[in-house]
């Protein structure tokens, strides 16, 4: 009788140990999955923010080129080509902002992105060199504001529960 009782206690102890092990393994797996998901989102944000900043720099460059070609010959082929390139760069910038909006709900970041676009497309409208320099500076400041906010988002720590802090 004692050996049967000892065997029963051993079986129950083993079963209890298996259940506890399974519980903790499942918790660890769930935590790892949440963490991996949060890290993937952080990587997607990093990519979208980088794409937007790169597109903004290219857009500003194309707007500056458009302005310079206009100053040289407003009716010439180089100006027409620069204008078309500026349109392509604007479209790429707007597409990049759409990517940003898809990976974050941060309304301030969305607004900062819209401000960047607004300032970038104004560069070519400058009537003289002083206005041109001012608009370039404003576009740089707008982009810096976006980058600062985006950087803070990407550099946010991942909390133990897997959420971004």
Outline of this structure?
The protein has four helices and no strands. It has helices spanning 2-72, 77-103, 107-122, 129-154.
What does this structure look like?
- By secondary structure, the protein is an all-alpha fold.
- The chain has a domain at about 40-155: Four Helix Bundle (Hemerythrin (Met), subunit A).
- It has helices at about 1-70, 75-105, 105-120, 130-155.
- The longest helix has about 70 residues, at about 1-70.
- The protein starts with a helix and ends in an 11-residue tail after the last helix.
- The model has no long low-confidence stretch (mean pLDDT about 90).
Features:
single chain, 165 residues, mainly alpha, Four Helix Bundle (Hemerythrin (Met), subunit A)
Q: What portion of residues belong to β-strands?
A: under 5%
Structural class determined from secondary elements: mainly alpha
User: What gap, in angstroms, lies between the N and C termini?
Assistant: 59 Å
CATH architecture of the domain at 41-154: Up-down Bundle
The overall pLDDT average reads 90
User: What fold name stands as the CATH topology of the domain at 41-154?
Assistant: Four Helix Bundle (Hemerythrin (Met), subunit A)
Q: What's the gyration radius in Å?
A: 28 Å
């Amino acid at each position: 009788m004692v050996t049967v009782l000892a065997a029963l206690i051993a079986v129950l102890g083993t079963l209890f140990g298996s259940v506890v092990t399974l519980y903790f393994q499942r918790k660890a797996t769930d935590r790892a999955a949440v963490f991996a998901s949060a890290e993937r989102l952080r990587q997607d944000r990093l990519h979208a923010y980088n794409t937007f900043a790169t597109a903004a720099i290219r857009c500003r460059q194309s707007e500056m080129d458009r302005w310079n070609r206009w100053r040289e010959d407003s009716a010439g082929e180089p100006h027409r080509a620069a204008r078309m390139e500026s349109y392509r760069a604007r479209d790429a910038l707007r597409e990049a902002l759409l990517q940003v909006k898809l990976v974050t709900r941060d309304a301030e970041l969305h607004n900062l992105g819209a401000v960047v676009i607004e300032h970038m497309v104004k560069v070519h409208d400058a009537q003289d060199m002083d206005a041109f320099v001012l608009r370039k500076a404003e576009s740089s400041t707008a982009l810096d504001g976006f980058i600062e906010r985006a950087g803070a988002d990407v550099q946010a720590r991942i909390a133990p529960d897997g959420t971004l802090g």
